[in-house]
Amino acid sequence: MTTRATTDTTGAPEVHRVERQKSTEAKSAYKTTELIVYVLAVLGVLIASMIVDQSFGADPAWRYVTYLTVGYMISRGLAKAGSRQPYRD
Fold first, then answer.
1. What's the distance, Cα to Cα, between the start and end of the chain in Å?
2. CB atoms within 10 A of CB 38
3. Is residue 70 part of a domain?
4. Which helix (H) or strand (E) holds 24?
5. Is residue 23 part of a domain?
6. Which residues pair with 85 in a beta bridge?
7. Into how many domains does the chain fold?
8. In 3D, which of 23, 22, 15, 38 has the Cα closest to residue 82?
9. Which H or E run contains 86?
10. C-beta of residue 48 within 8 angstroms of C-beta of residue 56
11. Range of 68's domain?
12. Is 23 helix (H, G, I), strand (E, B) or coil?
């Protein structure tokens, strides 16, 4: 059985490797204004539920917080699906 040296490329196909640029899906969550707006909206709903009389209690407040959370997750999903940022170590 014979083997050829690794420096001998006679008859071997030439392989070209393309350097792929790494990228992230989207900006980190803490870098977006979406997170700030989400946190302020949640705080606003919870503070309003504490201040207002019994007409707006804890149940509707947490329901609205849930709606805000679902909306935030959908918006982050759309952001990740449609944009790319360069990856920097």
1. 46
2. 20
3. yes
4. strand 23-24
5. no
6. 24
7. 1
8. 23
9. strand 85-86
10. yes
11. 29-83
12. strand
Helix (H) or strand (E) holding 62: helix 58-82
Q: What residues have CB less than 8 Å from 26, skipping those under 6 apart?
A: 76, 79, 80, 83, 84, 85
User: What residues contact residue 25 under an 8 Å CB cut-off, 6+ apart?
Assistant: 80, 81, 83, 84, 85
- Residue 75 CB neighbour total at 10 angstroms: 14
C-alpha 26: how far from its chain's center?
6
> pTM above the 0.70 mark?
no
Helix (H, G, I), strand (E, B) or coil at 71: helix
Structure tokens at 9: 């490329």
Written as one letter, the residue type at 34 is: E
Report the pLDDT value the prediction gives residue 13, as an integer from 0 to 100. 72
Among 42, 16, 28, residue whose Cα is nearest residue 83: 28
pLDDT digits (tens, 9 = 90+) for 27-70: 666 677 788 888 999 999 988 888 887 777 788 889 999 999 99
21 phi/psi in degrees, rounded to 5: -80, 130
